[in-house]
Amino acid sequence: MKTAIVFDCEFLCAEGSQRRFWCGAHDPDPVIAQIGAVKLGLEGSYPILDTHRSYIHAMDRFGRPYDIDPFFTRLTGITPEEIAARGVPLGQALRDVDAFSDGARLWSWGKDELNMVAISCYVEGIAPTIPAQRFDNAVKLLLAAGMPIEDLAGTPSNKLAEYYGVDHPPLQGHDALDDALSVAYALQHLLLAGKLKPSAFG
After folding, report:
1. How far apart are CA 58 and CA 25, in angstroms?
2. pLDDT digits (tens, 9 = 90+) for 179-193
3. DSSP H helical segments within the chain, as ranges?
4. What H or E segment, with its residue span, contains residue 33?
5. In this structure, what DSSP letter does residue 132 have?
């Protein structure tokens, strides 16, 4: 079955770092600490075939592990203990996502790959393992399905399924897998309704 991968990332942050574009004196670099991915079937009933979640041992540009800011834990629910117990190196996390995708295109709500690959790999000093052309912006898909531009601009990924009134299991905002699921549920709904064509996924 032809598939698409919907993914999301959670990036290290401190309180106010997003407003400062991560340029405050004590802001961490916006490197990834969690990746979530959903495999969406593009045929038949457009099933959600599988999911993937990984935690990353985020390293700073000097090769030292980052301390997890309490604000990041409050925002995402991701604790230092969870990363210590379940985290993997960035390179392994990217290889795992690539293997999970099985060659399918990877879609995020925006351009998460610029942090997941470009910034994170640059900071850690490793070569990117997934080329840029493998990624695309899911905003294009919702635009093709008729979502108004003003709604696109004001709807975060974790609210997308709610925007379309999709009935789904409870989701936690700012969890990478749950945010990816929110996007995937919305895309599945639009595919089933005929408002989005599988051909839009390329």
Report:
1. 19
2. 999 999 999 999 999
3. 70-76, 80-86, 90-101, 113, 120-124, 139-144, 149-154, 160-163, 176-192
4. strand 32-41
5. G
Question: Which of these, 169, 32, 184, 54, lies nearest to 106 by C-alpha position?
Answer: 184
Tokens 């991560």 found at? 22
Residue 116 has pLDDT above 90, yes or no: no
Report the alpha-carbon distance of residue 113 to residue 53 in Å, rounded: 16
Q: Which of 183, 152, 153 is nearest to 168 (CA)?
A: 183
Is the alpha carbon torsion for 80, 86, 87, 93 positive or negative? negative
Look at residue 115 and tell me whether its pLDDT is greater than 90: no
| DSSP summary character for residue 65 | B
| C-beta of residue 56 within 8 angstroms of C-beta of residue 93 | yes
Burial call 35-55: b when 16+ CB within 10 Å, e when fewer = bbbbbbbbeeebeeeebbebb
User: Which residue bears the tokens 């099933």?
Assistant: 47
| Model confidence pLDDT, tens digit, residues 4-31 | 999 999 999 999 998 999 999 999 999 9
